[in-house]
Structure formats: structure tokens, C-alpha cells
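Summary for the steering committee. The consortium agreed at its last meeting that each partner would contribute one worked example illustrating the joint modelling workflow. Our contribution is presented below. We chose a case with several input lines so that the handling of multiple components could be demonstrated. No manual editing was applied between input and output; the record is shown as generated.
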Amino acid sequence: MSFRKWISERINQDRTIFLIYLLLIAIPMLRPIGLPLPIEEPTRKAYELLEKVPKGGVIVLVSDEGFPSWAELGPGEIAVYRHAFRKVRQDGCKVIMLTCYEIAGMILGERALSYVDLTGLKYGEDWVQLGYIPGYEAVLAAMMTDLKSIAPVDKFGTPTKDIPMLKNINSIDDYDFLYACTYTAMDVYIRQWGEKALAKGVPIVINMLSGTVPLAMPYYRAGTLTAYLNSVVAGAGYELLIGQPGMGAALMDAQSTAHILAIALIIFVQGLFILRLMGGRR
Amino acid sequence: MSFDWGTAAEMALVLMAWSLLYRDNVFYRVAENLTIGWFMAMSLVIGLDLLRTRVYNPLFIEGRWLSPLIIVTILGLFYLLRLYRETRWLARWPISLMAGVASAVAVKGVIYAQIIRLVTMKSWAVGGLETINNIIIAVFTFTGLCYFIFTKEHRGVLGYLAGFGRYALMICFGWTAGTYLMSLISMSVGHMQTLMQVPGIYVSAVAMIILIIGIIYDIKVKPKI
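What follows is the complete predicted structure of the assembly.
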């Protein structure tokens, strides 16, 4: 029996690749390699924009991620939440949280909030959770002109007109920072926020999956998207910027080794294919 | 410090889902059904809560019968009329309204943010690699659009442009597919971190024992059955 035949009969290729992959991402967790962690320019820009929100400014955090994307978007989401609430403490900023894509976003937004130290902050005066508002794109459009019309009550059923913090906050004229975390199309936020935010000089920052970053690049160049967070890479960078290294930094080694495996497999398979072509076998 | 049963259960479900990588099995099916069931239950609870706070309370507690809310509520109830053959046509009303509103809202935003702003951006020639990038964007956009011209046969200049546009589209699709693969890798990496810490590491150890038993069973027992 030839070696090749023995391999193909005895070893399941899929299982072998999965096993190697799991080992490669498990090892750096147990013994960190310490690969360099670059902070991308858009990540730094997002941090600086949030840092520049004036005293008493209003920060809008839209959590539209889903459960499958949490591992990738979570580090960035937690870091932004921590930074936003640090601004609440330091500069008296106000935070508005809402979800408009699917219910999972609200649950995960609250999960991100659980990483934030809220002691001393008062609900309704420093921050407010509007919960899940069905309607997605229509909600994103309406919140630019009349927030209270789409959110007559907050997550807990309190009428928004009775919430002290929201007395003078209702439209893009009152916002100072727009942030969204999404695991679907990011252009929805651009087309509903872009024009008005650009006119008022309000920055738009979107935390997105690395798969959607290429789609965001034209908007970033055109200035309708002020900055973006490129999944866990940006999450890790943002953690360093706020001085609170967390899950993102720890994930980077494992992610890098997994990417190296993916590239090695692509080169291996393509190389094998080319060798077969050269040998005249298809 | 007490044992974190919540994380342990979460990690057990993750490993049960991953067990499909070995082969289809009862653990995977339990995890699949539990996840779907839990999410449906959660959606139902939050959906009912939304109806209570946004519909029931304003209409029945506050008595705001003469507000636009009543129109929306009635239209929402029209969805349920699909259940009866005689009234099924009425369910098209809210669907049509939703589709119309969604299209109108989207188109309104598209014109400025996704068309005008992109073609009028001032930073076309900023120097170095940026300029090359901008030229690539312009060429790919133009030739990609040429590919979708179906009112004229793709011959001559248009044929060359459409042919190039086809390659431009394939490059973009390939890039997007590749980055999505990287996204999927990131998702599993996130779970692996929790699996390598207490209590996930205990769950991993139990899963490893079950996997070894499964492999031995497959090699020694199953072929004889």
C-alpha cells in the first residue's frame, strides 16, 4: 500500500485540519506568544473622537450585533462602553443605548454594560437604556429627527418624556457622538446618519466584522464614516488605548496563529494543484 | 469563589456544537435544539414585553385611543388575518406598507451618502498609495457598472470594459469571502479563550474524555455492529 493511499484511507482530512486548528488556537491561550499588537489608524481615530466629545456631550451607542458575532465584536464593544462611561464620569457626558436590528443586540449590549463600573452613576440622569426598538432602518432614520417618537418609553417602561436626561435630547442637533456595533450591513447606518451627521460635524464610528471592512472603505475615504473598528483587532487596540487590556489582547495571538494556518493551507492546496497541472494530471 | 455554572453551561453548549466537526451526534442535536428553543423563548418574552409597554399600556392603561398608535396596532393585527383564507388578502396591507416605507427610507439616504458623497469626494489625488487606491475604486466602479449594462450587447469597447468589470467583481467577491472566513475564525478563537480558563477547562476535559470514548467506540465497536 502506497503512503498516499494509506493516508487517504486512514486519516480523515477534514478532522485533521479541525484538530490542528483547535490545537493552534488553544496553545496561545495557555502559553501566550506575545506577537506585536499594532493599533490601526481608524481605531486610534475612533478613540480620539470619543475622547474629544465635549463636557456634557451626548454619546449614542447602538448595539446591533448578534450572538455569533460576539467573540469578534465583543472586545471592541466592551472597550467603547468602558470609554463612554469614563467620559460620563470625567466630563459629565450622557449615554443613550438602544438596539434596532434584533433582540440579541440588546442582550449583548447589556452584557457589554456588565463590564462597566456603574457605581455612582444614576440611571436616567447619566445614562439611559431605550432597549429594543423594532424597525431597523426606519428607526435609524427617525432617531435623527425625533428620538422620542420612536422610543416613547425606555426599556423598563418609563416614558422617555419623564426621563430627566432626555428632556433636551431628541435629535441629531443634540448628539455629539454616534456609535453602532453591527454584524450585518454597515451601509444602512451610513445612509441614514451620514448626511445629517456630516452637516452637523457629528462623528460616526462603526464596530464591524472584518468581513465588512472592505465595504466600509469607500465611505471612510469619503468621510461619511468618520472611523471604524475592525473587529477583534480593533478591540484589542482600543483596550490598550483606554488602558484596560482585556479579552481582545489575549485573543490576538490565537487569531494570528489561526490565520497563519489558513494561509499555509491555501498555499499548500494551491501548490499541490499547480504541481498536478505541471505533471499533466487534473 | 463559587463555581461559575453559567459559563460552564455556555462552554458545554459550545463544545456540543463543535462536536459536529467529528460527526453528527446526539450532543450536537441537543445543543442545536436548546439554542434555537432558548432564542425563540427569549424573543417571545421580549416581544410580549414590547407589546405591553408600547401598545397595551398606551391604549388600555393611558387610554390614548385617538393616537396614530391605534392605526399601527390595527395594521399589525392584520398580519394575523393570514390564518383565514377569506381574510388573507388583508395581510398584504401591512406588508406593502412596510416594504414601501423601508424602500423610501433607504432610497432617501442612498442618494447623498452612497452616491453624491462618493463621487464628489475631494481627496481623489492625495498622493502615493492613496491616489492609486482611489483610481482603483473609480475604475472598478465604472467597469463593474459596465458589466451590468444589459440594454446593449457586450461588444467592442463595452465588451472590454464589461470583461474587466467581471474580473473586478470577482476580485471583490473573493476578498469578501476571504475576510468572512477570517471572521469565522475569530468567532471560534473567542470561545477558545473561555474554554482554556476555569470553568471552561473542566468542561473541555470532560468533552475530551467523551470524544476519546467516541473514537474508541467508532474504531472497535461500531464496525462489528
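Chain A has a mean pLDDT of 88. Chain A has one domain: 41-252.
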